[in-house]
Design goal:
The protein is of the alpha/beta class.
Length: about 240
């Protein structure tokens, strides 16, 4: 899976499928092109996509190369979303924000990745004793049931509706083109709004597009990994 550690150990009875959706040639081509434009990206750092609630500075994350994938936009939007909450009010599905330096001290549920305070529980089995102010998930739901064997295509949508009941507000993103069935459920999901953002330049430029253009967006084409993301937001129950 694209953003998972190579050291993941699967839970008992479940195997993680190898990512065969992207060829080695495609990975190398995109890496070479991204390296070529890196000096321009470093010199400008000017991207401020207007996707949800106004423009936001892209999270470049040069150490982790976040700028070259959908992570740059997702982390920028997530950083703004979590700012209104105390860490103990936040539940994150998938261990993304802490490794990126965006947030720490919050509750994290991740079936596979180990880390300080991370609960290695399948999200569909997670039953907290309290409700959270904000539930956030960054490009994680598309892997639930889909990148495991046996594959369960409906599990990700079930997980979405389960986690929607775990908190008051939601901020969830998924890449377009990885799990088409989930995209349909996501657009009709438990949100106040769903927005499609499409990458338009290797320099980290993104634009908001109509939802009916989802089917035109491909994964890892023409840019590395997610060329579009869906962002679901719910402000209240």
């Amino acid at each position: 899976m694209s953003y998972r550690s190579n050291k993941i150990e699967a839970a008992p009875g479940v195997d993680v499928l190898a990512d065969t959706s992207i060829s080695t040639a495609s990975r190398l081509r995109n890496a070479a092109l991204d390296i070529a434009v890196l000096p321009i990206v470093v010199a400008t750092r000017s991207s401020r996509p207007d996707i949800v609630d106004g423009p936001v500075p892209l999270h470049y994350g040069f150490r982790r190369w976040d700028w070259r994938t959908e992570r740059g936009l997702e982390l920028a939007l997530a950083k703004r979303a979590v700012a209104a909450y105390k860490p103990n009010e936040i539940l994150e599905i998938g261990n993304v924000l802490a490794p990126a330096g965006v947030l720490s001290g919050h509750t994290v549920v991740d079936k596979y990745e180990e880390g300080p305070g991370v609960l290695n529980v399948d999200i569909v089995d997670y039953r907290p004793e309290r409700s959270f102010g904000l539930v956030v998930s960054i490009s994680t739901l598309e892997h639930v049931g889909w990148d495991e064997t046996p594959r369960e295509p409906d599990k990700a949508a079930a997980a979405l509706h389960h986690l929607a009941g775990l908190g008051t507000s939601l901020f969830i993103s998924i890449p377009v083109g990885h799990h088409r069935q989930l995209e349909e459920a996501f657009i009709d999901g438990p949100f106040d709004s769903v927005t499609l953002a499409v990458k338009t330049s290797r320099l980290g430029r993104w634009e908001r597009r109509p939802l009916d253009q989802c089917s035109r967006v491909e994964y890892n084409t023409p840019f590395a990994y997610g060329n579009g993301i869906l962002v679901g937001v719910r402000a209240t129950t």
